[in-house]
Specification:
The complex is a heterodimer of chains A (601) and B (396). By secondary structure, chain A is an alpha/beta fold. In chain A, strand 12 and strand 13 form a beta hairpin. Chain B contains 9 helices and 27 strands. The longest helix of chain B is centred in the last third of the chain and has 18 residues. The radius of gyration of chain B is 20 Å and the shape is globular. The chains are: A alpha/beta (601), B alpha+beta (396).
């Protein structure tokens, strides 16, 4: 039997154990309850993160975030007061449009929040900062509010939740906001980031637009410069080249003839430089179009050989050719540009070769698609190039190194233009070179076969004498509209050379008068003239029905593509560039007056 | 935040005040922002309020305590006399105290007192972290309602009702330079640190339950349609049998208060307790808290041992609610039911030891009150009897 003391001790132990158990149980229940609360909050945070990721714009993001928080905090309205650089406080985002952009005076209350304190207010009307706002009514519809600090890289701000009933926010909400604030902050940073991005995109767009406008202006300036340069150089060149040509037709002593020939050669070189520059400009502007017309391949090749063989031989170089293709092949292509490429490459080979010679080979390989693949190879025994400099030789205005330009001259545009022309034709140029051994340039062209000319002794379709004869027999009455006396003289002499009469008008107005006084078969029209320029005159002529079909050929130092296009739009039929190439001028005139005379040949 | 306490047994109020103030300042190493005072009825509240330095920007809140007080140094009662102060140095926090006389309108007094306290804290309109309440006994439920009318039901309210040594109405409260014997003293607290609180009793429910079928104010006339005192006496095994004709039963009922379920944590119920103090006319039972018809009541059971150990458990519970570490707190405030203290007076040093063990001997001040107010973590603010209310302040 237990004595009373033992019983009491046992009772106390039991009582103690019972209390301990209850206490442990209580702790466990609290932990479970806390875990549930934390899980709910974590779910809220995850939902908030999802909202941040999915919202399309800042206002939507803000409203979605409030929806998430509304699970935990009784929010009727929310807004964010941003602190501006000048410390002014202004509402920048809100669910209540009535309070948008309202400014707040700085106060101890707002500064405490900006410094990091989350404050719940049971009655906003008791708080001086709010009282000022509520002086003239309560657009906020707020009796109680919860305020939390936010901060981004650039702004401090206050997030405010309001409720129309008093004492709706408490310590629990403050603690919740402590957890949710980083989320809200992130939202704000995202919003700011988006605004920054928007602003950056706007700035970038503006920059790009400015850059585009500048580029367009620069391009226009470049075009104007090219046009002016071309015009200003072509005008005196016209005189130099053509007076030289006319002089060489006369009977002059051999020494003087040699001098004049050198002047002629130098001025043609200068013209070549101008033409190359204009060509490159056209290619870069995407305005150079490759023609696809029937031409005799053998003739095109031989024209180049005829021209450059002499140059090579004059330099003491051998000029070997190996031509292996059907000599009567008529193919579709751009003979002018093919000649230009071959001339550039062969001329280049001659230029950089001091001894030895040039090998030019052309080989043909028919395909089963009614076309022929023509391989062109130009080899020389010239200075050659090291491998590391090869990559530069096709760049504009760049030769292997600057010393090359100084020694050998030239614009360095020939290879660039050739490469780009070939690319436009769907081909590529290959180059191999060994310093002091020589260089080899190769390319292929696939030309569509038109027909094989049966005639073995075909006549050149534009042979000089035929054209001249045809023109002489046509004997057109020509009106030359030109203000420059020298140019008047040159044109008149060139036409007189084949017995053609020319009437001169010094400007457009005189031209219109002349047209009314007599009948003309052709007008050669300069463009830049006082009183009435060439374009205006052409337009005026085309407006008169009786002159609607009167051939007008522009005769101008304006040789760039836009000028040619402008001439066509003003109603002119063709275009002859200054300096005038005599044979080209005859051919263009005949082409305009009697195209059948040429094609029938 | 730094907390310190000081105690004096000097019967001269001025000397006691000076001694404790000097000691407090020394302990804190700085001027406190807030002082809470527990004093026994022999110290005149009016005189105390008058002695407080009007020039100092210190908020002061005082409340009379039954027979003595306790702090981390022990239970202090020198022939029913003690004077203790608790001070907090928290320059980043905000505190405001106010006193409003009851004038038969306890609800309005509560509302007015909290508004004034918030204004004195320079935090008008804001929600405080805690409301520390000392009301004179009788209408604490209404006072709590009044406070909640202003700041809402979710602001924790803790504290205890003013007490005297013999339930003779010699209680008093003070706030700053005001004092009264029928009113509400409130301190609105905005500490710069985290706080945590608990409100519990040292009693367990028994199998005896019933429904209040007739009640008025703080008197239960009938339980299950029978005279309340008779039912209670039967449940409690005849502890008030000798007093069924009428009279004070405070001492006999201390271990058997009546409980009402106040909150549940999982399957554990928390009870708010009511201490029967007298049998009145028609064998009705007078208590220290209000009842209504329909209230479900349970006879609770306690023991000396459970009351001794409970204080430490409440301290541990307070720490656990906010997961505070006892080694990192700055101090605590404790309200311990005067009835419980009277029942285990000889063992009060053990109560202090149990609190010290839980709080690692951090400074605390405890008063013995005639009614306790606290916040059940799960169900809000309540006025009860035979309860322990505790608030713990983190260090920073």
């Amino acid at each position: 039997m237990l004595d009373k003391t033992t019983t009491n001790d046992q009772f106390r132990k039991d009582e103690f154990l019972q209390e301990e158990l209850i206490e442990e149980h209580l702790q466990l229940e609290r932990i479970i309850s806390r875990e549930k609360r934390l899980r709910k909050e974590a779910e809220g945070l995850l939902e908030g993160l999802r909202t941040l990721n999915e919202s399309r714009n800042s206002q939507e993001m803000f409203e979605e975030l409030l929806n998430v928080l509304n699970e935990f905090i009784p929010i009727e309205h929310g807004f964010i007061i941003f602190e501006q650089a000048n410390k002014q406080l202004i509402i920048g985002m809100t669910t209540n449009p009535q309070v948008a952009s309202i400014t707040w005076e700085s106060s101890d209350f707002l500064q405490r929040i900006l410094s990091g304190k989350i404050i719940a207010a049971h009655d906003v009307s008791e708080i001086p900062a709010w009282r000022t706002q509520l002086k003239h009514g309560n657009p906020f519809k707020a009796a109680s509010a919860l305020h939390a600090p936010l901060s981004t890289q650039t702004h401090r701000a206050i997030l405010v939740f309001t409720h129309s009933s008093p004492a709706m926010f408490n310590k629990k909400h403050v603690q919740l906001l402590e957890k949710f604030s980083p989320l809200t902050n992130q939202a704000l940073i995202n919003i700011e980031h988006k605004q920054e991005l928007k602003s950056a995109v706007h700035m970038q767009t503006k920059k790009l637009r400015t850059a585009k406008e500048n580029a367009e202006a620069a391009n226009k300036a470049k075009s104007n410069f090219l046009a002016n340069m071309s015009h200003e150089i072509r005008t005196p060149l016209n005189a130099i080249i053509n007076f030289n040509a006319l002089a060489l037709e006369g009977n002059i002593p051999s020494t003087e003839r040699e001098y004049i020939e050198k002047v002629a050669s130098a001025s043609k070189g200068l013209l070549g430089i101008i033409n190359e520059t204009l060509d490159l400009s056209k290619i870069e502007a995407g305005k150079l179009e490759i023609e696809s017309i029937p031409f005799n391949l053998n003739e095109a090749i031989n024209e180049v050989i005829d021209l450059l063989k002499i140059t090579a031989e004059e330099k003491g170089l051998l000029f070997n050719t190996e031509l292996s293709y059907p000599k009567n092949l008529i193919a579709s292509g751009d003979p002018l540009r093919l000649r230009q490429i071959l001339t550039n490459l062969i001329h280049n080979a001659i230029k950089f070769t001091d001894s030895g010679g040039i090998d030019f080979s052309v080989n043909a390989k028919p395909t089963h698609k009614n076309s022929t693949v023509i391989s062109f190879t130009i080899s020389d025994s010239g200075i050659g190039l090291p491998a590391n400099e090869l990559k530069n030789i096709f760049n504009s205005f760049q030769q292997a190194d600057n010393s090359t330009t100084r020694k050998y001259g030239g614009t360095g545009l020939g290879l660039t233009i050739s490469k780009q022309l070939l690319e436009l034709m769907g081909s590529e140029i290959e180059v191999r070179s060994i310093p002091n051994v020589g260089s080899k340039f190769c390319f292929t062209l696939e030309l569509i076969n038109i027909e094989v000319d049966k005639s073995t002794d075909h006549q050149a379709i534009n042979k000089t004498d035929k054209i001249e004869q045809a023109l002489t027999s046509l004997k057109p009455n020509i009106l030359l509209v030109e203000d420059n006396i020298t140019n008047q003289l040159i044109a008149k002499k060139i036409l007189a050379r084949i017995n053609l009469n020319t009437t001169i008008a010094n400007n457009g107005e005189e031209a219109l008068t002349a047209l009314n006084e007599q009948k003309f078969d052709l007008i050669l029209m300069d463009l830049h003239m006082p009183v009435l320029d060439g374009f205006q005159t052409a337009v005026a002529i085309r407006q008169e029905p009786q002159w609607a079909k009167l051939p007008i050929i522009a005769l101008t130092a304006n040789a760039i593509q836009t000028d040619i296009e402008q001439c066509a739009s003003a109603g002119m039929n063709a275009h002859i560039s200054k300096p005038i190439d005599i044979q080209t001028m005859y051919k263009v005139i005949l082409d305009v007056l009697a195209p059948t005379e040429i094609t029938s040949e | 935040m730094k907390i310190a306490t000081a105690f004096s047994s000097n019967l001269n109020l001025k000397t006691a005040l000076n001694e404790t103030s000097d000691q407090l300042q020394k302990e804190l190493g700085a001027q406190p922002n807030l002082i809470l005072i527990y004093f026994t009825e022999n110290y005149a509240a009016n005189e105390l309020a008058g002695l407080l330095d009007k020039q100092q920007a210190i908020q002061v809140h005082g409340c009379s305590s039954c027979l003595g007080l306790m702090d981390s140094n022990g239970f202090h009662t020198d022939e029913g006399s003690a004077f203790g102060i608790w001070g907090a140095h928290d320059p980043d926090g905000a505190y405001g105290s106010a006193l409003v006389e009851m004038n038969n309108h306890p609800r309005q007094a509560g509302a007015e007192a909290i508004k004034q306290a918030l204004t004195n804290a320079a935090r008008a309109g804001e929600i405080p972290d805690l409301v520390w309440l000392s009301a004179t006994p009788g209408s604490e439920e209404s006072v709590i309602q009044g406070i909640q009318d202003v700041v809402g039901t979710d602001v924790p309210i803790a504290g205890g009702s003013a007490a005297d040594n013999s339930v003779a109405g010699n209680w008093s409260i003070i706030a700053n330079n005001d004092a009264c014997t029928d009113g509400v003293a409130i301190t609105a607290m905005f500490p710069s640190v985290k706080i945590s609180y608990a409100f519990q009793s040292g009693y367990s429910p028994t199998q005896y339950t019933g429904v209040v079928t007739k009640a008025s104010g703080r008197t239960i006339h009938e339980i299950d349609n029978k005279p309340a005192a008779e039912v209670y006496d039967e449940w409690a095994g005849g502890v008030i049998n000798d007093s069924l004709g009428g009279g004070n039963v405070l001492a006999q009922t201390t271990f058997n208060p009546l409980g009402r379920k106040a909150a549940s944590v999982g399957k554990i119920d928390h009870y708010k307790l009511s201490h029967p103090d007298a049998v009145t006319e028609n064998r009705a039972l007078s208590l220290f808290s209000e009842f209504s018809d329909g209230d479900e009541i349970t006879l609770m059971s306690g023991s000396r041992h459970s009351l001794i150990s409970r204080a430490g458990r409440v301290a541990k519970s307070a720490l656990s609610v906010e997961e505070l570490d006892a080694s990192k707190i700055s101090g605590a405030l404790v309200v311990f039911c005067a009835g419980c203290m009277l029942a285990i007076q000889d063992d009060m040093e053990d109560v202090v030891i149990s609190i010290n063990e839980a709080l690692e001997t951090k400074p605390f001040l405890g008063g013995f009150t005639f009614g306790e107010q606290g916040c059940f973590v799960e169900s809000g603010n309540t006025h009860g009897n035979l309860m322990i209310s505790m608030v713990v302040f983190n260090a920073g």
